[in-house]
Automatic annotation (TrEMBL), chain A:
It comes from Novosphingobium pentaromativorans. The chain crosses the membrane at residues 15-34. F-type ATPases have 2 components, F(1) - the catalytic core - and F(0) - the membrane proton channel. F(1) has five subunits: alpha(3), beta(3), gamma(1), delta(1), epsilon(1). F(0) has three main subunits: a(1), b(2) and c(10-14). The alpha and beta chains form an alternating ring which encloses part of the gamma chain. F(1) is attached to F(0) by a central stalk formed by the gamma and epsilon chains, while a peripheral stalk is formed by the delta and b chains. One of its GO terms (molecular function) is proton-transporting ATP synthase activity, rotational mechanism. It comes from the Bacteria. It holds the Pfam family ATP-synt_B. Belongs to the ATPase B chain family. The keyword Iron does not apply. F(1)F(0) ATP synthase produces ATP from ADP in the presence of a proton or sodium gradient. F-type ATPases consist of two structural domains, F(1) containing the extramembraneous catalytic core and F(0) containing the membrane proton channel, linked together by a central stalk and a peripheral stalk. During catalysis, ATP synthesis in the catalytic domain of F(1) is coupled via a rotary mechanism of the central stalk subunits to proton translocation. Component of the F(0) channel, it forms part of the peripheral stalk, linking F(1) to F(0). The b'-subunit is a diverged and duplicated form of b found in plants and photosynthetic bacteria. The keyword Aminoacyl-tRNA synthetase does not apply. InterPro entries: ATP_synth_b/b'su_bac/chlpt, ATP_synthase_B_chain. PANTHER family: ATP SYNTHASE SUBUNIT B (PTHR33445:SF1), ATP SYNTHASE SUBUNIT B', CHLOROPLASTIC (PTHR33445). This is ATP synthase subunit b.
């Protein structure tokens, strides 16, 4: 076994060169390069974490904005609905009022017309009575040669006109 | 066993500092290759792009793996050990994998320096020293309470203290020996099986069919197993260091 057989002759060289090359590895690679590599990794991790946080913040902001927009939109819609309802109520009120006015006017016209009609009918009836009385007296005077009292003729005519 | 023998290269067998030989051996060469390959690999992942490419992704998954292991075993205080654990894990991993390269096909010979306890021992002692330094710096002499678990009856404290102390002191040995044994055993197994294939092939076609061919098929499976072991042993070394660091960092 050369490890033991050569130990006395080679141990100093082995130890010396091992320290030299492991020392080189430790100081150049371990102390020199590894921290930089790990720094790169840490930087990348940090950037990823930052980006994620930024994305999360942006999402929260978008959510808040959407919520605000929704609230605003709902308020606007409610306002519009209220406006529409008010306009509708106003229009209905105006229509009712106008209808009432028109009805009153129509009623008045109707009443007036009826009065006129009844007046006309009364005067017409009176005229008919006069004509009938005149005609009756004329007929009576011609046929019977009687000169009748005007009041008597008129009451007789009125009686006949009323009872048909 | 020739694959484990250490030979000085480039006529450097005479190099020494203060009387200690520091020859540049084949073991040293593979340490250098592992260190340079690792540096190249990690450097390729330093493009620092926001959207990583494949190479950057691979390097980042390794650092993330070590970071996660420390976070799970030590907690938030483990972050500062990432450079050390990363170096440890990747250096051992690269050493194990590079030692398994089938370079014999083109006439070169890979050398697995993690199959030498004189090499793994350095790493184990390093880890153990860090545990001791961190433990005593952070908790002063209170660190010794590590050896007395909560709820120990007073009468049992001296005995438990000794047992815990021994198990604590064994850690660097178990740490270094585990890696060395696992790597060496795998390589020896492959070597034995391949020697079966070659010597049975030389002995005749019949023997090759009976012994050589099954050995060869087994070798293919064992090679896959060795790749797994190479990763697992690096992981175990790093994980145990994390667990020991947890003791030093948080006590019990």
């Amino acid at each position: 076994m050369p490890q033991i057989a050569q130990l006395a002759a080679t141990y100093s060289s082995q130890i010396f060169w091992m320290l030299i090359f492991f020392g080189f590895t430790f100081f150049v690679v371990g102390r020199g390069m590894v921290p930089k590599v790990m720094d790169t990794v840490a930087q990348r991790d940090k950037q990823i974490a930052d980006d994620l946080a930024a994305a999360e913040r942006a999402r929260a902001q978008a959510d808040a904005e959407e919520e605000a927009w929704r609230t605003r939109e709902n308020a606007n819609r409610a306002e519009a609905q209220a406006l529409i309802a008010e306009a509708r109520a106003q229009a209905a009120a105006v229509t009712t009022e106008r209808l009432a006015t028109a009805q009153v006017a129509i009623d008045a016209t109707l009443a007036e017309a009826e009065t006129r009609i009844s007046q006309a009918r009364r005067s017409a009836a009176a005229e008919i009575e006069d004509v009938a009385a005149d005609a009756t007296r004329e007929i009576v005077s011609r046929i019977a040669g009687l000169t009748l009292d005007d009041g008597a003729v008129r009451s007789a005519v009125k009686e006949n006109l009323v009872h048909g | 066993m020739h694959q484990f023998s250490i030979q000085p290269l480039f006529g450097s067998e005479g190099w020494s500092i203060a009387g200690y030989n520091i020859a540049f051996t084949n073991s040293t060469l593979w340490m250098a290759i592992a260190a340079v390959t690792l540096a190249f690999f990690v450097a390729g992942g330093m493009k620092r792009q926001l959207v990583p490419g494949r190479w950057q992704m691979a390097v980042e998954s390794f650092t993330g793996f070590i970071d996660g292991m420390l976070a799970a075993n030590v907690g938030p205080g483990g972050k500062k050990y990432v450079p050390y654990i990363f170096s440890l894990f990747m250096f051992i991993l690269f050493a194990n994998f590079l030692g398994l390269l089938p370079l014999g096909v083109i006439g070169l010979h890979a050398f697995t320096f993690t199959s030498h306890f004189s090499a793994t021992g350095v790493l184990a002692v390093l880890s153990f020293a860090i545990v001791l330094i961190v433990g005593f710096a952070k908790h002063k002499l209170h660190f010794f309470s590590l050896f007395v678990p909560h709820g120990t009856p007073v009468i049992m404290i001296p005995l438990i203290f000794c047992v815990e102390l021994i198990s604590f002191l064994v850690r660097p040995f178990s740490l270094g020996l585990r890696l060395f044994v696992a790597m060496m055993a795998g390589h020896v197994l492959l070597e034995v099986l391949s020697s079966f294939v070659i010597s049975s092939g030389n002995a005749g076609i019949g023997l090759f069919a009976i012994a050589g061919l099954p050995s060869f098929i087994l070798m293919v499976g064992i090679c896959a197993l060795e790749l797994l072991v190479a990763g697992i042993q690096a992981y175990v070394f790093a994980l145990l260091t994390c667990v020991y660091l947890n003791d030093a960092e948080n006590l019990h």
